[in-house]
Each structure stands twice: as C-alpha cells, then as structure tokens.
Amino acid sequence: MHNQSIAPARTRTTLTAAIALLVGLLLTLQPWATGRAHAHDVLVSSDPAAGAALTTAPTQVALTFNNDVLTGVANQIQVHGPDGASVAGDGLAAVEGRVVTVPVTITANGTYSVAWHVVSSDGHPVEGTFTFDLASPDAPAADETPDASGQASASNASAAPSASAEAQADGQSDDVDHSGAIVAWVITGIVVVIGVAAIVLGVRRSRRPQK
To answer: Distance between CA 180 and CA 17 in Å, rounded?
Structure first.
C-alpha cells in the first residue's frame, strides 16, 4: 500500500517537472525565433520618394532604414538619368545611423532610376530599386539615347516601374517574416517532441515496481 501511494505522487511530480521544463524552453527560444523573423533591415522611406514627380532637381538621394546600417562596407546608391548615365558618380554612399545618402548632379528632365545595395545591421546585404521623375521648367528634356559607354537608356531601365519604398519594405518584411516563422515552427516542434519524450520517460520510470 505504501509503494502504491508513492507512485502516483512521483508521477505527478515528474509530469509537473517535465511540463515546467517544456514551458521554460519555449519561453527561452521564443524571443530568439521572433528576432530571427525581423533580423534584416528594411527600407522605410526615400527622398525623393519612389514614383515622385519633382519640379526641382534634388541634390542628393537619401534612404532611411528601420535600423542603423552597417558602416565600414561598400554601401552604394546608384542613380542613372534618362540617358543611362550615372548622376551619382561612383555611387558610394555615406551612412549616418539609419540614413544612407549619395550626392547627385541632375540637370535634365526625365525619369531617374535608383538602385541601392547596403549591408543590414545584422551583416546581411539588402537591396532594391525605384524611380522618380523630374519635370522642372528650368531644365531641358534629356536625350534618351545611350551615352558613349553604351549604357542602356533609362526608359528601358525603368520599363517596369518598381513599387514604392513602402511596398519594398513590406515585401522585404514578408520574406523575412516567412523564413522566421518557419524557423520558429521548427524550433517549437523540436521542443514539443523533447518535452513529450521527457514526460513519457518520466511516467515509465515512475511506474516501475519499487523493490
């Protein structure tokens, strides 16, 4: 009788300990899985904005991200005019916290394409493209033929208009969230299997006859 009364108590204790361990593991891994789902930086806004129709030529292109961009690497913002020529020199960008900028020299009306490539604060590269238009009364219309280097015209480069900066950010977030969700589900499944195995093992041990 004494051994029979001890067995249920041990079973309850084992089950409680196993469940507590399972819950503890889930709580420990959940912030890590959530962080993985939101690791990469995303573009929040740009100046000029994607798809903007300007009447004054900008002197720089500025991109703002949700986190500080990694410095000490070759972050680039390439800007090409209607004739396909670069208006941003070599495209090497300056980084100040969350803002990445490159100076531009724009003198002609037309469509300008922006292609950016920066390194996220987590060390992963992120990139995107967008266009904006200039229709200044003080600027001439650009010659849309290829320049001497044989670059394609901006009209070809921008034949399929890109989404706005906000849409790009949403798209990047969706991709990262999707991969992060998969990681979270895999981790949760592993923890659940381990927890169930621990519970079953504990119950079997508690049911062994006492000598």
So the answer is: 30
